[in-house]
Amino acid sequence: MDRGCAEPLAHETVAALVAEGLVSDDRFIEALLHVRRVRGYGPLYIRRELEEKGIERSAIERWLETASTEWLDDLRRVRKKKFGGRQPASLAERARQTRFLQSRGYTHEQIRTVLGSDDD
Fold it and tell me: How far apart are CA 54 and CA 2, in angstroms?
């Protein structure tokens, strides 16, 4: 059984939905951003996912401000859930937490801010 429809019909249908305001990259970005943040993902992870889905870079930049303090609040919540409220007691534990938070898409600056500088 064939699935889908002819490509010209698909483009025509999507164009009609966009014209009516029923399909929007901004609405998609907003929804995906909310879901990923609730699940503990950071701005780098979300940016990559949006790029993979074909969203224009300019639209992504309008929605993702990595310098926002909200990301630090998210990072603290994720770290507390995974590792508890205590700061890493050793360099090995700090490295483990850093790797986990990087895998979740947080920036080095955000992680350094939450974990404290290497000199602490």
Answer: 25
